[in-house]
TrEMBL record:
HAMAP family: PanB (MF_00156). It comes from Pseudomonas pohangensis. It is an enzyme of class 2 (transferase). Mg(2+) binds at residues 45, 84, 114. 3-methyl-2-oxobutanoate binds at residues 45-46, 84, 112. Its EC number is 2.1.2.11. It comes from the Bacteria. Binds 1 Mg(2+) ion per subunit. Catalyzes the reversible reaction in which hydroxymethyl group from 5,10-methylenetetrahydrofolate is transferred onto alpha-ketoisovalerate to form ketopantoate. This is 3-methyl-2-oxobutanoate hydroxymethyltransferase. Its cofactor is Mg(2+). One of its GO terms (molecular function) is methyltransferase activity. Belongs to the PanB family. Keywords: Cytoplasm, Magnesium, Metal-binding, Methyltransferase, Pantothenate biosynthesis, Transferase.
Amino acid sequence: MPDTTLTTLQGLKQNGEKIAMLTCYDATFAQAACQAGVDVLLVGDSLGNVLQGHDSTLPVSLADMAYHTASVKRGNQGAFIISDLPFMAYATLEQTFASSAALMQAGAHMVKLEGAAWLAEPVRLLAERGVPVCAHLGLTPQSVNLFGGYKVQGRQEVQARQLRADAMALEQAGAAMLLLECVPSALAAEISQSVKIPVIGIGAGVDTDGQVLVLHDMLGLSLSGRAPKFVKNFMEGQSSIQAAIGAYVSAVKQRTFPGSEHGFTA
Ligand code: KIV
């Protein structure tokens, strides 16, 4: 068992303490992130962008995710590990079970999938079978072609209402965590207060229960040379990667990151 469990994370929410999550794809960074105090390592399918150089997460395979999850597990020193189910690896219930089993057997403690209330049935069935699930809502990068780009979600009231309903439906179905990406800060705060499970934000303001950033982004590394608005370069003013990750953890815990300049309005 990791030192940080689902119970630890639920306790942090109940006590009003922030959760520091960071993406991670290999053993060395897993060790460094743990030593810097990161609570949760997310083996994100963002590895398709930052490791593989694709312009989306769609080309990432289940084998890629299992390989990187196993690598992170080997360097982990007590953090809770979440692993992304990649594009089309949960298109049917049978696929969802097989893909989740592959990631849990590679070392994940929870799987994350992208979608909305339609995920209620797979979430319920996974939870009944012992697999904790994080549901990723808002800007879900696997649907970039449907969205027509990487756009803030939930700005119009009709979208906001749908997001609130999706969050409630997924909690009721048994999701153990929600992740909100690029939604207005006020809406993310409201959703975080309305559910009992931890809500992690990226581009969702300071009032979620925790924060996540892509490792390469917060280290100031970018293939395109343009960082999204919600990113802060924590390498600035630091002399080592370890110190930069430590500064990120402190900023999340002390609520000094994200600032209002990193968030979105309706
Ligand atoms: O794949 C990923 O890294 C993610 C984060 C952007 C939240 O899902």
